Amino acid sequence: MIGSAPDGEKAVSSMFGHHRGGPTVLRIVLGAQLRRLREARGITCEEAGEAIRASHSKISRMELGRVRFRSRDVADLLSLYGVADQEERSAMLALAERANEAGWWHSYSDILPGWFEVYIGLEEAASRIRAYEVQFVPGLLQTEDYARAVTLLGHPDAPGHEVERRVGLRMRRQSLLSGEDPPHFWAVVDEAALRRPLGGVAVMRRQLEHLIEVTELPHVTLQVVPFHLGGHAAAGGPFSILRFAEPDLPDVVYLEQLTSALYLDKREDVDDYLAVMERLCIDAEPATRIRDTLGRILKEL
């Protein structure tokens, strides 16, 4: 089966289309397909786990795309689920191999926690990213000096080389917006984040100038929630919503915490956050006025 990789690769493209996001997305797509096959046969997670000499929780993690796939496990599950067509089996096994490849961010594994590695993979795959930020300029829009100041806040005792590695990771993520077929990035930022001179006035001035420049890109939208608005819908804190072109991938809400993160993909949870985001966009200053808003804040620094 594995020997027929060229045919399998063609079938992967046919079955699952073109993927933007590398291994993270491929794992989710493969997991979703395995779940559908299992449910269609009326097989429980416990029964599937027994077939591959594992627990039902491993089956759940596989179906969510949260673990690497062993070719033997995938082959055994396909047999259990009644998948006998050799082209389909080859396609899914080829997909499993691709899903286990390391993303570019693997080279930063020494500083990258596992819970954030998942986010980078999803970010790479997203066709639309919407974000609300309270304290900082969104990471995808930060200048190098501003990113360094943010890094030092979170890691004040880190050695210089580690700080630069963390800044380098953030700059590498930003290539997403300048590459081919970039996602639409739509950020809503609290005015406080733009007025707090993180890193000093000179660093903040350059950061605001950078925001004016990037908002000229057709795929970047930025809005500001002004002070005079008072309270607003997202009082609970920052969050991001990622949407994907791949139909097998549900929208994901990302909530970052101090030492971990939450990933919400249940429809009712996503809908709640989408409603909050829509209200934020209505309440915030129109995106058409962003250059005037940034210019005014720049003059007042």
How is this structure best described in words?
The protein is of the alpha/beta class. The chain folds into 2 domains: 2-99, 434 Repressor (Amino-terminal Domain) (Orthogonal Bundle); 107-300, Endonuclease, Chain A, CATH 3.30.870. The chain is 52% helix and 11% strand. A hairpin with an 8-residue loop joins strand 4 and strand 5 (252-256). Helix 2 (23-40) packs antiparallel against helix 6 (86-99) and helix 8 packs across helix 9. The longest helix has 19 residues, at 160-178. Residues 1-19 have low confidence and may be disordered.
Layout of SSEs?
Layout: H1 5-16, H2 23-40, H3 45-51, H4 56-63, H5 71-80, H6 86-99, H7 114-125, E1 128-133, H8 144-154, H9 160-178, E2 184-190, H10 191-195, H11 201-214, E3 220-225, E4 239-243, E5 252-256, E6 261-264, H12 267-283, H13 290-300
Parallel strand pairs: 1-2, 2-3
Antiparallel strand pairs: 1-4, 4-5, 5-6
Helix pairs in contact: 1-6, 2-6, 3-4, 5-6, 8-9, 11-13
Order of helices and strands: HHHHHHHEHHEHHEEEEHH
Quick one: biggest sheet? 6 strands, mixed
CATH-defined fold name of the largest domain: Endonuclease, Chain A
- The total count of strands amounts to 6
**Residue windows where pLDDT falls under 50 for at least 5 positions:** 1-19
Per DSSP, the total helix count is 13
Q: What's the rounded overall pLDDT mean?
A: 88
**Text of the CATH class of the largest domain:** Alpha Beta
Gyration radius, to the nearest Å? 22 Å
CATH architecture of the largest domain: 2-Layer Sandwich
Strand content: 5-15%
Q: How would you classify the helix and strand content by structural class?
A: alpha/beta
- Helix share, percent: 40-55%
Question: How many structural domains?
Answer: 2
Distance between the termini: 64 Å
What general outline do the C-alpha atoms trace?
elongated
State the strand order across the main sheet: 3-2-1-4-5-6
